């Protein structure tokens, strides 16, 4: 039984490494071959290799890095000769996927916020230069996207808040805003529609400035500059608050990992804590109660920090 579980752990670990690292490694190898090869000597890859790379990429996109939770549970199951850690790993995979998606959503929201701030600044400059609002909106977007494309061609890292972030961060709704500006449509309504995405709420202020400037002839550039300053100050305040909470978050993560450190120390001393926890009634009860308390404590600490950030 232990030999079969060991073979299963080895196969699972190898498959995970193949899934997670194969795609990026293949892309880098292709770039290196194209850069170093002599012209005329680079031939197409064999069909089986292209099919294997495509299958690996699709599986990697579907599985994701949270497969390591399952690998860790399988490894602990082999060491402890019990299926309980494997079941815990299976349960932990969707939780890890949810955390990863929440982190990606937060980054996407921050990218949209940076895009809105960059757009307000560029649009204010175009209006100051004497352009009409609709033409200024199109020109500002094209100018910032062109600058970002030039930096990408030069090999420079694309900073946060560039024009490419404007095009990508605001999604398909931004195409509707540009179309409304080009053909005389309802630009404030299109801006409000684009502002529904998380992180793009600053477009509501842009829509209000646009409506006031068009209906009452007020200065659009002044309102945009004030809006950019307010959005930038709000973003900086959130960044400062996140930096202040980094210490508390690190402490919570460290405390959550102390039980695992205790198990490692007990195993190093020859106490065999996994056998006690997984194969005795009292140990299993302690494991169950401790796991529930550990999860509740981590959830409570993260909830406090999320409320503080909000």
Helix fraction bin = over 70%
Q: Could you tell me the mean pLDDT?
A: 76
**Mind telling me the C-alpha Rg?**
27 Å
Shape call: elongated
Quaternary organisation of the protein chains: single chain
Largest sheet, described in full? none
Q: Got a strand count? A: 0
Strand proportion, as a percent range, falls in under 5%
Give the number of helices.
12
Low-confidence stretches: 1-7, 17-23, 33-43, 155-165
Q: What structural category characterises the helix and strand content?
A: mainly alpha
Query: End-to-end distance, in Å?
Result: 50 Å
N-to-C series of helices and strands: HHHHHHHHHHHH
Protein name: Tight adherence protein B
Coiled coil: 224-251
InterPro entries: T2SS_GspF_dom
Main location: membrane
Describe the structure.
The chain is elongated. It contains 12 helices and no strands. Helices cover 84% and strands 0% of the residues. Helix 1 (2-36) runs antiparallel to helix 3 (67-80) and helix 8 (187-194) runs antiparallel to helix 9 (202-216). It is an all-alpha fold. The protein has helices spanning 2-36, 47-63, 67-80, 84-128, 133-153, 163-169, 172-183, 187-194, 202-216, 220-268, 273-279, 281-309. The two termini are 50 Å apart. It has a domain at 108-232. It is a multi-pass membrane protein. Residues 170-265 form the Type II secretion system protein GspF domain. Keywords: Cell membrane, Coiled coil, Membrane, Transmembrane, Transmembrane helix. This is Tight adherence protein B.
């Amino acid at each position: 039984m232990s030999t079969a579980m060991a073979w299963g752990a080895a196969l699972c670990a190898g498959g995970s490494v193949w899934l997670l690292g194969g795609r990026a490694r293949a892309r880098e190898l292709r770039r290196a071959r194209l850069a170093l090869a002599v012209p005329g000597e680079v031939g197409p890859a064999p069909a089986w290799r292209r099919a294997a790379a495509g299958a690996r990429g699709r599986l990697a996109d579907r599985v994701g890095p949270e497969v390591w939770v399952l690998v860790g549970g399988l490894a602990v199951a082999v060491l402890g000769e019990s299926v309980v850690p494997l079941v815990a790993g299976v349960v932990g995979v969707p939780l890890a996927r949810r955390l990863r998606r929440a982190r990606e959503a937060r980054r996407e929201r921050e990218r949209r916020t940076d895009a809105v701030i960059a757009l307000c600044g560029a649009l204010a400059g175009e209006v100051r230069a004497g352009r009409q609002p609709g033409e200024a909106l199109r020109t500002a977007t094209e100018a910032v996207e062109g600058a970002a494309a030039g930096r990408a061609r030069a090999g420079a890292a694309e900073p946060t808040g560039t024009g490419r972030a404007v095009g990508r961060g605001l999604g398909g709704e931004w195409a509707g805003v540009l179309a409304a500006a080009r053909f005389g449509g309802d630009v404030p309504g299109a801006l409000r529609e684009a502002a529904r995405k998380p992180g793009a709420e600053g477009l509501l202020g842009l829509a209000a400035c646009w409506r006031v400037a068009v209906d009452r002839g007020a200065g659009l550039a002044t309102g945009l500059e004030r809006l950019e300053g307010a959005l930038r100050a709000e973003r900086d305040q959130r960044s400062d608050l996140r930096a202040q909470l980094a210490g508390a978050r690190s402490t919570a993560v460290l405390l959550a990992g102390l039980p695992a450190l205790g198990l490692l120390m007990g195993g190093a001393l020859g106490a065999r804590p996994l056998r006690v926890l997984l194969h005795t009634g009292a140990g299993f009860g302690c494991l169950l109660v401790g796991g529930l308390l550990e999860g509740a404590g981590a959830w409570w600490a993260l909830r406090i920090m999320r409320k503080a950030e909000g």
